[in-house]
Amino acid sequence: MPNDPVKYVLLLGSNIEKERYLPLAREALAAQFVIERWSTMFSSRAVGAPGTPDFHNQAVLISGPVDTTELRLALKKIERDLDRVRDHDLNSPRTIDIDVVYRVDPTTECAVEHDTDLELHHYVALPVADVDPTRCVPDGRTIATIAASLGPSPEGFRTV
Fold first, then answer.
1. Which of 1, 77, 112, 130 makes a 20 to 30 Å CA pair with 66?
2. Distance of CA 7 to the CA centre of its chain
3. Is the pTM of the predicted complex or chain greater than 0.85?
4. What is the pLDDT of residues 37-51, one digit of tens each?
């Protein structure tokens, strides 16, 4: 376990009782990590699951003396504690989903190990750009540049 705090950007998502579960997820994170910033809340249609409730997504910049493996275990526990049910359908509705979008390299201050969804989906890129726009990725682009490269937001995408 590292002694110095490590920064991570997470993406929280919910489409079951989202007004209840997203605040509970932030509280659970705050009990274990320092929440440095959080983004505006965004609403979007569920990707790959037409007819299911819209998602609310929010990015959170956290720090704590934890490595990526330990963080992922802590996030899975928070999800279980908040009634997350996992099944064979990866697009099924959920009370809470917490994904690591990237870790910040302490020497370069760039985002590393970033989730490929950051470069593919507005529901990831726009909340992350809202919370950490000037962060670089190893190829030199910023998070804001990546978000802008996705073009106009899809129908149904909005701030909450």
1. 130
2. 13
3. yes
4. 999 999 999 877 777
